[in-house]
Amino acid sequence: MSEMVSVHGWMDEALSSQDEMKENSQRQSAYDMLSGLSHEEHGSIDGEEDEEEEDDGEKPKKRGPKKKKMTKARLERFRVRRVKANARERTRMHGLNDALDNLRRVMPCYSKTQKLSKIETLRLARNYIWALSEVLDRGQTADGKGFLEMLCKGLSQPTSNLVAGCLQLGPQPMFLEKHEDKSSICDSSLTSHAYSYQSPGLPSPPYGNIEAHHLHLKAPTFKTVVDPMVNHTLNCTTPPYDGALTPPLSISGNFSLKQDGSPDLDKSYAFRSHYPTLGLSGSHGHGSHFQTAVPRYEIPIDMAYEAYPHHTIFTE
DNA sequence: TAGGCCATCTGGTCCT
DNA sequence: AGGACCAGATGGCCTA
User: Fold this and answer.
1) What is the pLDDT of residue A69?
2) Which tens digits make up the pLDDT trace of A12-38?
3) Strand C CB shell (< 7 Å)
4) Separation of CA A99 and C1' C10 in angstroms?
5) Dist CA A243 CA A103 (whole Å)
Protein backbone atom coordinates (compact mmCIF):
# COMPACT_ATOMS: atom_id res chain seq x y z
CA MET A 1 0.00 0.00 0.00
CA SER A 2 2.88 2.30 0.54
CA GLU A 3 3.46 1.96 -3.12
CA MET A 4 -0.04 3.12 -3.81
CA VAL A 5 0.55 6.18 -1.71
CA SER A 6 3.63 7.03 -3.62
CA VAL A 7 1.88 6.38 -6.87
CA HIS A 8 -0.98 8.64 -5.88
CA GLY A 9 1.44 11.24 -4.73
CA TRP A 10 3.31 11.60 -7.93
CA MET A 11 0.18 11.17 -9.93
CA ASP A 12 -1.42 14.05 -8.13
CA GLU A 13 1.60 16.09 -8.92
CA ALA A 14 1.27 15.17 -12.50
CA LEU A 15 -2.39 15.95 -12.46
CA SER A 16 -1.97 19.32 -10.85
CA SER A 17 0.19 20.32 -13.73
CA GLN A 18 -2.54 19.60 -16.19
CA ASP A 19 -5.30 22.15 -16.11
CA GLU A 20 -7.65 20.17 -18.26
CA MET A 21 -7.90 17.32 -15.79
CA LYS A 22 -10.66 18.53 -13.57
CA GLU A 23 -13.49 16.13 -14.10
CA ASN A 24 -13.59 12.89 -12.26
CA SER A 25 -13.68 10.79 -15.34
CA GLN A 26 -10.71 12.55 -16.70
CA ARG A 27 -9.02 12.12 -13.40
CA GLN A 28 -9.69 8.44 -13.47
CA SER A 29 -8.38 8.16 -16.96
CA ALA A 30 -5.28 9.94 -15.85
CA TYR A 31 -4.93 7.65 -12.89
CA ASP A 32 -5.26 4.68 -15.14
CA MET A 33 -2.81 6.04 -17.60
CA LEU A 34 -0.28 6.97 -15.01
CA SER A 35 -0.74 4.16 -12.58
CA GLY A 36 0.93 1.63 -14.73
CA LEU A 37 3.95 1.46 -12.53
CA SER A 38 3.24 -0.26 -9.31
CA HIS A 39 4.06 -3.60 -7.87
CA GLU A 40 5.49 -5.82 -10.46
CA GLU A 41 7.05 -2.99 -12.26
CA HIS A 42 9.72 -2.75 -9.62
CA GLY A 43 11.14 -5.98 -10.86
CA SER A 44 14.12 -6.01 -13.10
CA ILE A 45 13.62 -4.43 -16.44
CA ASP A 46 16.32 -5.40 -18.79
CA GLY A 47 14.81 -4.07 -21.91
CA GLU A 48 14.83 -7.40 -23.66
CA GLU A 49 11.83 -8.36 -25.67
CA ASP A 50 12.41 -12.03 -25.05
CA GLU A 51 9.97 -12.67 -22.25
CA GLU A 52 10.66 -16.37 -21.88
CA GLU A 53 14.26 -15.96 -21.01
CA GLU A 54 15.35 -18.07 -18.05
CA ASP A 55 17.35 -16.83 -15.14
CA ASP A 56 20.55 -18.78 -15.47
CA GLY A 57 22.70 -16.67 -13.25
CA GLU A 58 25.10 -17.91 -10.60
CA LYS A 59 22.62 -17.44 -7.77
CA PRO A 60 21.44 -20.51 -5.88
CA LYS A 61 18.31 -21.89 -7.37
CA LYS A 62 15.08 -21.38 -5.50
CA ARG A 63 12.12 -23.67 -5.35
CA GLY A 64 8.87 -22.80 -6.89
CA PRO A 65 7.98 -21.34 -10.22
CA LYS A 66 10.72 -19.48 -11.93
CA LYS A 67 10.20 -15.81 -12.05
CA LYS A 68 10.17 -14.36 -15.46
CA LYS A 69 12.10 -11.26 -16.09
CA MET A 70 10.21 -8.03 -16.36
CA THR A 71 10.68 -7.29 -19.96
CA LYS A 72 9.13 -4.25 -21.48
CA ALA A 73 6.55 -6.37 -23.21
CA ARG A 74 5.59 -8.09 -19.99
CA LEU A 75 5.54 -4.81 -18.20
CA GLU A 76 3.24 -3.37 -20.79
CA ARG A 77 0.92 -6.34 -20.52
CA PHE A 78 0.78 -5.96 -16.74
CA ARG A 79 -0.01 -2.32 -17.08
CA VAL A 80 -2.75 -2.88 -19.62
CA ARG A 81 -4.23 -5.67 -17.57
CA ARG A 82 -4.22 -3.54 -14.43
CA VAL A 83 -5.82 -0.61 -16.20
CA LYS A 84 -8.53 -2.85 -17.60
CA ALA A 85 -9.09 -4.43 -14.23
CA ASN A 86 -9.45 -1.01 -12.65
CA ALA A 87 -12.01 -0.01 -15.24
CA ARG A 88 -13.96 -3.20 -14.69
CA GLU A 89 -13.88 -2.69 -10.97
CA ARG A 90 -15.19 0.82 -11.33
CA THR A 91 -17.97 -0.41 -13.58
CA ARG A 92 -18.79 -3.15 -11.16
CA MET A 93 -18.99 -0.77 -8.25
CA HIS A 94 -21.11 1.63 -10.29
CA GLY A 95 -23.49 -1.22 -10.97
CA LEU A 96 -23.61 -2.01 -7.31
CA ASN A 97 -24.33 1.62 -6.52
CA ASP A 98 -27.05 1.72 -9.16
CA ALA A 99 -28.66 -1.27 -7.53
CA LEU A 100 -28.47 0.48 -4.20
CA ASP A 101 -30.08 3.55 -5.73
CA ASN A 102 -32.90 1.41 -7.06
CA LEU A 103 -33.29 0.00 -3.59
CA ARG A 104 -33.39 3.48 -2.10
CA ARG A 105 -36.20 4.43 -4.45
CA VAL A 106 -38.51 1.79 -3.10
CA MET A 107 -37.75 2.58 0.50
CA PRO A 108 -40.41 4.38 2.52
CA CYS A 109 -38.32 7.50 2.55
CA TYR A 110 -36.38 8.49 -0.48
CA SER A 111 -34.73 11.71 -1.40
CA LYS A 112 -32.38 12.43 -4.21
CA THR A 113 -30.74 15.12 -2.19
CA GLN A 114 -30.43 13.36 1.12
CA LYS A 115 -29.51 9.84 0.29
CA LEU A 116 -29.34 7.13 2.86
CA SER A 117 -25.93 5.68 3.26
CA LYS A 118 -25.30 2.24 1.87
CA ILE A 119 -25.40 0.49 5.19
CA GLU A 120 -28.49 2.37 6.32
CA THR A 121 -30.20 1.56 3.03
CA LEU A 122 -29.60 -2.12 3.56
CA ARG A 123 -30.75 -1.96 7.16
CA LEU A 124 -33.88 -0.05 6.29
CA ALA A 125 -34.60 -2.44 3.43
CA ARG A 126 -34.38 -5.36 5.74
CA ASN A 127 -36.65 -3.68 8.24
CA TYR A 128 -39.06 -2.65 5.53
CA ILE A 129 -39.39 -6.18 4.22
CA TRP A 130 -39.77 -7.43 7.72
CA ALA A 131 -42.43 -4.87 8.58
CA LEU A 132 -44.41 -5.43 5.41
CA SER A 133 -44.23 -9.16 5.79
CA GLU A 134 -45.58 -8.85 9.30
CA VAL A 135 -48.43 -6.70 8.12
CA LEU A 136 -49.28 -9.10 5.34
CA ASP A 137 -48.78 -12.20 7.35
CA ARG A 138 -50.66 -11.24 10.45
CA GLY A 139 -53.18 -8.85 9.05
CA GLN A 140 -53.53 -7.28 12.41
CA THR A 141 -54.74 -3.84 13.10
CA ALA A 142 -52.71 -1.81 15.45
CA ASP A 143 -51.22 1.58 15.67
CA GLY A 144 -48.58 2.73 13.26
CA LYS A 145 -46.07 3.22 15.95
CA GLY A 146 -45.19 -0.42 15.90
CA PHE A 147 -44.64 -0.29 12.20
CA LEU A 148 -42.36 2.66 12.57
CA GLU A 149 -40.49 0.93 15.32
CA MET A 150 -39.90 -1.99 13.02
CA LEU A 151 -38.74 0.27 10.26
CA CYS A 152 -36.28 2.04 12.48
CA LYS A 153 -34.98 -0.94 14.35
CA GLY A 154 -31.23 -0.74 14.40
CA LEU A 155 -30.99 2.34 12.26
CA SER A 156 -28.89 5.26 13.29
CA GLN A 157 -30.73 8.04 15.00
CA PRO A 158 -30.42 10.45 12.06
CA THR A 159 -31.86 7.84 9.74
CA SER A 160 -34.57 6.99 12.21
CA ASN A 161 -35.50 10.61 12.46
CA LEU A 162 -35.50 10.86 8.70
CA VAL A 163 -37.81 7.91 8.36
CA ALA A 164 -40.05 9.18 11.10
CA GLY A 165 -40.08 12.59 9.50
CA CYS A 166 -41.00 11.14 6.14
CA LEU A 167 -43.87 9.23 7.63
CA GLN A 168 -45.13 12.22 9.51
CA LEU A 169 -45.17 14.45 6.48
CA GLY A 170 -48.13 12.69 5.01
CA PRO A 171 -48.45 11.33 1.53
CA GLN A 172 -48.04 14.31 -0.67
CA PRO A 173 -44.54 15.59 0.07
CA MET A 174 -42.94 12.23 0.08
CA PHE A 175 -44.89 11.03 -2.87
CA LEU A 176 -43.93 14.04 -4.88
CA GLU A 177 -40.35 13.61 -4.00
CA LYS A 178 -40.33 9.95 -4.82
CA HIS A 179 -41.94 10.62 -8.15
CA GLU A 180 -40.79 14.06 -8.86
CA ASP A 181 -40.00 13.14 -12.40
CA LYS A 182 -43.41 11.71 -13.00
CA SER A 183 -46.30 13.58 -14.40
CA SER A 184 -49.24 11.72 -13.01
CA ILE A 185 -50.04 11.46 -9.38
CA CYS A 186 -52.43 9.01 -7.90
CA ASP A 187 -55.03 10.05 -5.47
CA SER A 188 -53.18 9.42 -2.30
CA SER A 189 -56.32 9.66 -0.26
CA LEU A 190 -57.14 6.25 -1.55
CA THR A 191 -54.01 4.80 -0.07
CA SER A 192 -54.96 5.22 3.51
CA HIS A 193 -54.49 1.66 4.53
CA ALA A 194 -54.57 1.39 8.22
CA TYR A 195 -51.24 -0.08 9.05
CA SER A 196 -51.81 -2.14 11.99
CA TYR A 197 -49.12 -4.00 13.63
CA GLN A 198 -48.69 -4.88 17.21
CA SER A 199 -45.01 -5.13 17.57
CA PRO A 200 -43.90 -8.45 18.94
CA GLY A 201 -40.68 -8.76 20.77
CA LEU A 202 -38.40 -7.05 18.35
CA PRO A 203 -35.12 -8.65 17.54
CA SER A 204 -32.02 -6.91 18.62
CA PRO A 205 -29.76 -6.42 15.70
CA PRO A 206 -26.10 -6.70 16.39
CA TYR A 207 -25.56 -3.13 15.38
CA GLY A 208 -27.54 -1.44 18.09
CA ASN A 209 -30.98 -0.30 18.96
CA ILE A 210 -33.13 2.70 18.46
CA GLU A 211 -36.02 2.88 20.80
CA ALA A 212 -39.29 4.44 19.86
CA HIS A 213 -38.95 7.29 22.28
CA HIS A 214 -35.98 8.51 20.28
CA LEU A 215 -38.17 9.17 17.34
CA HIS A 216 -40.13 12.13 18.65
CA LEU A 217 -43.27 10.86 17.09
CA LYS A 218 -46.34 12.81 16.36
CA ALA A 219 -49.56 11.00 15.79
CA PRO A 220 -48.38 8.77 13.00
CA THR A 221 -49.83 8.72 9.57
CA PHE A 222 -48.83 5.76 7.56
CA LYS A 223 -50.45 6.44 4.30
CA THR A 224 -47.18 6.82 2.52
CA VAL A 225 -45.52 3.73 3.73
CA VAL A 226 -47.18 1.57 1.22
CA ASP A 227 -47.16 3.82 -1.75
CA PRO A 228 -44.92 1.77 -4.03
CA MET A 229 -47.25 -1.17 -4.20
CA VAL A 230 -50.48 0.52 -3.32
CA ASN A 231 -50.04 2.87 -6.18
CA HIS A 232 -49.85 -0.10 -8.43
CA THR A 233 -53.01 -1.54 -7.10
CA LEU A 234 -54.74 1.72 -7.75
CA ASN A 235 -54.08 1.61 -11.43
CA CYS A 236 -51.42 4.22 -11.21
CA THR A 237 -49.62 4.29 -14.50
CA THR A 238 -46.29 5.33 -13.13
CA PRO A 239 -44.57 2.50 -11.37
CA PRO A 240 -42.10 3.74 -8.80
CA TYR A 241 -39.44 1.33 -9.86
CA ASP A 242 -38.82 0.34 -13.39
CA GLY A 243 -35.86 -1.90 -12.85
CA ALA A 244 -35.77 -5.61 -13.29
CA LEU A 245 -38.15 -7.47 -11.10
CA THR A 246 -36.85 -9.88 -8.61
CA PRO A 247 -38.51 -13.24 -8.38
CA PRO A 248 -41.83 -13.01 -6.60
CA LEU A 249 -41.59 -13.87 -3.00
CA SER A 250 -43.88 -15.40 -0.56
CA ILE A 251 -43.94 -12.47 1.74
CA SER A 252 -45.40 -14.50 4.48
CA GLY A 253 -42.62 -16.97 4.39
CA ASN A 254 -39.56 -14.84 4.43
CA PHE A 255 -39.02 -14.82 8.11
CA SER A 256 -38.90 -17.60 10.55
CA LEU A 257 -40.10 -16.64 13.94
CA LYS A 258 -38.52 -16.99 17.27
CA GLN A 259 -40.49 -18.32 20.16
CA ASP A 260 -41.59 -14.89 21.19
CA GLY A 261 -43.00 -14.27 17.78
CA SER A 262 -40.31 -11.97 16.54
CA PRO A 263 -38.60 -12.83 13.31
CA ASP A 264 -35.33 -14.64 13.54
CA LEU A 265 -33.40 -12.52 11.16
CA ASP A 266 -30.42 -14.78 11.17
CA LYS A 267 -32.35 -17.70 9.78
CA SER A 268 -35.17 -16.20 7.92
CA TYR A 269 -34.07 -15.88 4.37
CA ALA A 270 -35.11 -19.24 3.01
CA PHE A 271 -37.96 -18.16 0.83
CA ARG A 272 -40.81 -20.56 0.75
CA SER A 273 -41.77 -20.07 -2.82
CA HIS A 274 -39.68 -18.07 -5.18
CA TYR A 275 -41.66 -19.17 -8.17
CA PRO A 276 -45.11 -20.24 -7.16
CA THR A 277 -46.07 -22.77 -9.75
CA LEU A 278 -49.25 -23.40 -7.85
CA GLY A 279 -51.78 -21.08 -6.49
CA LEU A 280 -51.93 -18.44 -9.14
CA SER A 281 -55.48 -17.46 -8.80
CA GLY A 282 -57.96 -14.87 -9.76
CA SER A 283 -58.13 -11.62 -7.96
CA HIS A 284 -60.92 -10.57 -5.73
CA GLY A 285 -62.57 -7.79 -7.54
CA HIS A 286 -59.60 -5.60 -8.12
CA GLY A 287 -59.87 -5.45 -11.84
CA SER A 288 -56.76 -6.39 -13.69
CA HIS A 289 -54.55 -6.93 -10.74
CA PHE A 290 -52.61 -10.03 -10.24
CA GLN A 291 -52.65 -11.82 -7.00
CA THR A 292 -50.72 -14.75 -5.72
CA ALA A 293 -52.71 -17.18 -3.73
CA VAL A 294 -50.83 -17.49 -0.51
CA PRO A 295 -49.71 -14.00 0.30
CA ARG A 296 -52.22 -11.26 -0.04
CA TYR A 297 -49.85 -9.36 -2.20
CA GLU A 298 -51.03 -7.64 -5.28
CA ILE A 299 -49.02 -6.50 -8.22
CA PRO A 300 -50.27 -4.89 -11.41
CA ILE A 301 -51.02 -7.12 -14.30
CA ASP A 302 -48.19 -5.88 -16.48
CA MET A 303 -45.72 -6.60 -13.74
CA ALA A 304 -47.31 -9.96 -13.25
CA TYR A 305 -46.84 -10.90 -16.87
CA GLU A 306 -43.26 -9.82 -16.68
CA ALA A 307 -42.60 -11.64 -13.45
CA TYR A 308 -44.47 -14.78 -14.41
CA PRO A 309 -43.93 -15.14 -18.13
CA HIS A 310 -44.60 -18.85 -18.08
CA HIS A 311 -47.67 -18.83 -15.90
CA THR A 312 -51.27 -18.44 -16.68
CA ILE A 313 -52.47 -15.36 -14.98
CA PHE A 314 -56.11 -15.10 -14.17
CA THR A 315 -57.74 -11.78 -14.05
CA GLU A 316 -61.25 -10.60 -13.88
C1' DT B 1 -10.61 18.33 13.95
C1' DA B 2 -12.32 13.72 14.40
C1' DG B 3 -15.35 10.57 12.48
C1' DG B 4 -18.43 8.80 8.88
C1' DC B 5 -19.02 7.80 4.23
C1' DC B 6 -17.48 7.15 -0.23
C1' DA B 7 -14.76 6.13 -4.60
C1' DT B 8 -10.92 4.12 -6.18
C1' DC B 9 -6.81 1.26 -6.55
C1' DT B 10 -4.80 -2.97 -5.63
C1' DG B 11 -3.58 -7.82 -4.92
C1' DG B 12 -5.47 -12.24 -3.86
C1' DT B 13 -8.60 -16.00 -4.86
C1' DC B 14 -11.73 -18.58 -7.49
C1' DC B 15 -13.73 -19.89 -11.72
C1' DT B 16 -14.19 -20.51 -16.76
C1' DA C 1 -5.08 -16.05 -19.33
C1' DG C 2 -8.55 -13.28 -18.05
C1' DG C 3 -12.77 -11.96 -15.66
C1' DA C 4 -15.55 -11.62 -11.35
C1' DC C 5 -15.54 -10.93 -6.73
C1' DC C 6 -13.66 -9.56 -2.46
C1' DA C 7 -11.34 -7.09 1.23
C1' DG C 8 -7.75 -3.89 2.69
C1' DA C 9 -5.72 0.58 2.17
C1' DT C 10 -5.92 5.27 1.06
C1' DG C 11 -7.38 9.93 0.35
C1' DG C 12 -11.17 13.23 -0.39
C1' DC C 13 -15.36 15.32 1.14
C1' DC C 14 -18.65 16.59 4.52
C1' DT C 15 -20.51 17.48 9.04
C1' DA C 16 -21.00 17.91 13.99
Assistant:
1) 66
2) 333 333 333 333 444 454 445 444 433
3) A 1-2, 4-5, 8-9, 12, 77, 81, 84-85, 88-89, 92
4) 25
5) 10
